[in-house]
Amino acid sequence: MRKLLVAVCSAAVLAANMVLMTPLFASEVNVYSAREENLIKPILDRFSKQTGIKVNLITGGADELITRMGLEAGNSPADLLLTVDVGRLLRAREMNLLQAIQSETLEAGIPAQYRDSEGYWYGVSLRSRVIVYDKQRVDPASLSTYEALADPTWRGKVCIRSSSNIYNQSLTAAMLSHHGVAATEAWARGLVANFARNPQGGDRDQIAAVAIGQCQLAVVNTYYLAGMLNATGRAEREQAERVGVFWPNQQDRGAHINISGAGLARFARNKDNAIRLLEFMVSDEAQTWYAETNNEYPVRADIPVSATLKQWGEFRADPLALEQLGIHNAEAVRLMDRAGWR
Amino acid sequence: MIAIMALCVLISVPVLTIVASLAGDSDGVWQHLADTLLWEYIRQSLTLMLGVGVLVLVLGVGPAWLVTMTRFPGSRILEWALILPLAIPAYIIAYTYTGMLDVTGPVQGFIRDTFDLRFGEYWFPQIRSLGGAITMLALVLYPYVYLLSRMAFLEQSVCVLEVSRTLGAGPWRAFSRIAVPLARPAIIAGLALVLMETLADYGTVQYFGLSTFTTGIFRTWFGMGSATAAAQLSVVLMVFILVLVLAEQWSRKRARYHHTSSKYSRLAQIPLHGWRKWAALLACGLPVALGFLLPFLQLAWWSWDTRHLVDFSAFSTLLLNSLQLAASAALIALVLGVCIVYAKRLQPGLMMRSSFRILSLGYAIPGTVIAVGVLIPFAWFDNSVDGFMQARFNVSTGLLLSGTLVAVLFAYVVRFLPVAMNTLDAGLGKIRPSMDDAGRSMGFGSWQILRRIHLPMLKGSLLTASLLVFVDVLKELPATLILRPFNFNTLAIRTYELANQERLTEAASSALMIVLAGIIPVIIISLSISGSRPGHDTRA
Which residues lie below 8 Å from residue B411, measured CB to CB, with a gap of 6+? Predict the structure, then answer.
């Protein structure tokens, strides 16, 4: 029994140690990031090296991080919130968790479409959701728009992941703001009727399913295909090489775009450092790193895209204000529920 | 006693926080769900529970009986190997099997190449389906049933079995009519853990694209932005479990399961011959092969393939963090578990029993929901203290508990204490009340009875309880993810982050580390159980 007591006491001491472990640096910045550690830490390390500012990081799902920020309220240690989807930045703003900042660097570097008009959030990288097709069996001339994916000619031939996925929610939200509820619901029903299988897996799984012939078309984010084309595994590369990229809606509004971005926390204690970090994220160095390492499109037009993305050529992007994606998100989910999109 | 009640209340706070959401306004989400997916959620969750429940009984109880009562080739090894799948997190086995068996995987690719077929020209079971999810969950969860029923079989007095045989019952009847009914509390305790874990699972069902209660909770919360409706769905989840538990209790009525005889002799294990021995090997070998060996080898293979991409220097920190958390949580859960279970034995009144039930619910709630249930009261406490200190002394105390490992450990306790409690309760239930009376007649107080009589007799259960919590924490992901402090990662988080980017092969090496770290405690549990038979000092 004495042993047990000793053990309990040492556990308590250990716990206390861990609580007090967080060192108080003179100069630091606290980041809540929905971007996974391996996709953000290298950039943060470079920032620390250049500026001497220590970056503390917590990663996690955007919704969970936002929930945590909200509950921590005025005492939240977060300085900067990073997400991989604009809808979450808008939700954070709606919940009054962000504050507006004005920065010449940010305003000059980031096109107006990809940042909040009042400065609550700024996009740092772009991705498009495109149609990929089986090069052997589909003539790209038969493809045209997202809307046409609901056409009965594609019955049983389309693969797309679950509607729980935020990228599909944003795509549907974009449709909603262009066409309204009735037309979008009809589109979703048509699309569901064209599914080759129940939605399952991630974007890479959809690409692989096209490659082996389970479906002829899939809707995926650009960087997933680029990631597969540059994968270490031969099987994955071969699958990716069997599909072609089609940019939808080039004759009208353009391809659907989403951003990864960041906003300054409302109660940020290290405001200046956080702004410096945000500015660093749109610097030449960080933008090139994003483009090369993760095959995302740089938010700055003057930064070259990666070699893989270059092959797919230039494209017209949907100029829709990104706020619309956030505004229509909940309605999009309900609509997809009604249409039977699992 | 009052202290323990207060403790129970404290630990129930997150669960009660979630229940309190019933008062909130869900903004028409329920109407929408009733119109669309609610029945689908209920149907799929029930099917999942039923399927997993039946399968774990088949995979768990039979082999437990076979390795305890008989000898066949490999039975000594299988005795402990049958627990190994416990070391594999459900979401990892799902990823692994999908990687192997999905349409785009190597197995179907091989079939297509060899027989020159195209997709759709041959039949192959769909891994990403309700049936697939049932299989995956059953393969990693059956060890709970195996473990607890084996403990019960080992602790059974041979007398009743011998009596049944003299009365003319064959071995099968002795098993089905005597041993299993007597082991029922243990089997049910194991089954309850499995079903709760099944209901709380998110990783597997989400990856397989199913519409269950958990996927529904996150869809309403994140997609529709209604945290209230999501919490209310979690309450429905708890009601599910509560009904199950109460139904079982009611059916058990006043039956008691401790043995009245203290005659324990070495179990005479019957050697099996002929086809029986191979059938036994198959029945016990298959769960190990499918639940552990195959996924383990696949993970090892992927890890080898991606070894040049992995930053092994970071691994020691990740491993240390994981082990530290698991050990602390196991210890806390053990101490609290003993206190609560013993208090329930001393005062089995309505208050104690109902708080026992409420605490048990934690295991059935998805980790993310528990985490929010922890975050709400902790943040409230921190902000209140801060407000008070600012007003009184003009000092800001900031966040004292939120964002520290205290919050993480608290969430673990809420979620995994039921595992410890169930195991200890089953163990304590088998100690005859006359032992307490004997202690009391010697002038012992309650504390002394616990320390000098119960704890020594419970040694096996204590070890099992703490190691089960240890392994569970090692595998835990969602609560750690939300509640952890800055710059703190575990193996499970690393695995999840890579898998979330759909880089399954790169995620394999950290997944493998989780499995390896979990194997050792799992083997210790197995060995200690073999030696736990009363009156059985050393194994020959």
Answer: B14, B367, B370, B371, B374, B479, B483
